[in-house]
Specification:
Layout: E1 2-6, H1 8-14, H2 22-33, E2 37-41, H3 42-72, H4 86-102, E3 106-108, H5 115-128, H6 134-149, E4 154-158, H7 163-166, H8 168-176, E5 182-185, H9 188-195, H10 204-210, H11 213-222, E6 244-261, E7 267-281, E8 304-305, E9 311-326, E10 331-342
Parallel strand pairs: 1-2, 1-4, 2-3, 4-5
Antiparallel strand pairs: 6-7, 7-9, 8-9, 9-10
Helix pairs in contact: 3-4
């Protein structure tokens, strides 16, 4: 049996409504078909609730209150009665907690850890990184103890944080406890690639050939005005975004893919590709942004405001696609667009 645990960063990548996203649904179906289970550590459980309450709901209520303040300050405007959203907040949080619990088999309580082991980790860790990785240690150790208690099962952690794979201290712990059933993957796709449907003909080359650049271009142009918001926060208001001058696809490369069967048992392939988009917008006539600090989501992004005060989005976008996989012809047909994520940071690390 497999017990699969997702880290908080995987849930965050999927989005607030993670249970409706294609990767999660495919994972859940794959596990259900084999009587495998999703488990959740209480570290992740509490982080998800905290994020939903403090970074999703509270800002939403704050925006609601700001609107009413603006109405109060608007002459001759009679505003409707303002509602107290306290009960709405509590209800939303309760429903979210209920949904989280229903999405997994059980929540694993943090095991009391060896304090000396934790101290040793923190001392070594501070020489490797400035980041406090205490929560990573707790999550890692909780699942390791769970693996020891269930030696006949495979305990799987899916996390995009490289610390779980690359950290030497973690490797030594696994070796010292002689754990053989603790597996770590960096994405849902990599797990499904390992244990899901396997086809020799399903290769990087076949996947790339199935993707039409015009499909990518068409979808990016439908929502191209969202891109400058990743350069300057003011552009979160699309009404302030200048007109597009030029948009081109510079590169398409494979990120990950896996085969699966949908609800009708039709064979499909889920595809994620990184597409370098260069979108040049007209000079901003309302404000000079040439001396502003742009939003740097990771070191290698090339987003900028050029010398003419033009916002230029020059970065990788993660495109999520789906195609029909034909075993007889060994081809991928009817590739369709699912979603795209601008400035997707694929270089997660603990450094």
């Amino acid at each position: 049996m497999h017990f699969v645990s997702l880290d908080t960063n995987i849930y965050r990548q999927l989005g607030t409504e993670f249970w409706n996203k294609i990767d999660f649904k495919n994972l859940k179906k794959f596990l259900d078909q084999r009587a495998y289970e999703i488990i959740m550590t209480d570290v992740v459980y509490k982080e998800l609730i905290d994020f939903y309450s403090n970074e999703v709901i509270k800002p939403l209520v704050g925006e609601y209150n700001k609107v009413f303040q603006k109405m109060d300050n608007t002459p001759l405007f009679e505003r409707p009665p303002q509602q107290d959203l306290t009960l709405n907040e509590k209800k939303a949080e309760q429903e979210y907690i209920k949904t989280i619990r229903e999405s997994c088999f059980k929540i694993i309580t943090t095991y009391v850890t060896d304090c000396n082991e934790l101290i040793d980790f923190l001392i070594i860790n501070k020489h490797v990184t400035k980041k406090d990785n205490t929560r990573d240690f707790i999550l890692f150790k909780t699942l390791l103890i769970f693996a020891l208690e269930n030696p006949k099962d495979k305990i799987v952690l899916i996390s995009s944080d490289k610390i779980f794979i690359e950290n030497e201290f973690f490797r030594k712990i696994i070796k010292s406890y002689n754990v053989k059933n603790y597996l770590i993957f960096d994405s849902i796709a990599s797990y499904l690639n390992e244990f899901g449907y396997k086809y020799d003909f399903l290769t990087d080359d076949l996947v790339l050939k199935s993707i039409r650049p015009e499909l990518i271009k068409r979808e990016i142009l439908r929502d191209v005005k969202c891109l400058p918001s990743y350069i300057i926060r003011d552009y979160n208001n699309v009404d302030l975004v200048p007109e597009l001058q030029d948009c081109k696809i510079d590169e398409i490369k494979i990120y990950e893919y896996y085969a699966y069967r949908n609800e009708k048992e039709k064979l499909k392939v889920a595809i994620s590709v990184l597409v370098r988009i260069i979108a040049v917008f007209s000079p901003d006539k309302n404000k000079d942004y040439r001396n502003y600090n742009i939003e740097k989501y990771y070191e290698e992004n090339h987003n900028r405001i050029d010398q003419f005060n033009r916002p230029i989005y020059d970065n990788y976008v993660l495109f999520i696609l789906e195609g029909d996989l034909n075993e007889s012809t060994k081809k991928i047909n009817r590739v369709r667009f699912i979603d795209f994520i601008p400035d997707y940071n694929v270089k997660n690390s603990y450094a």
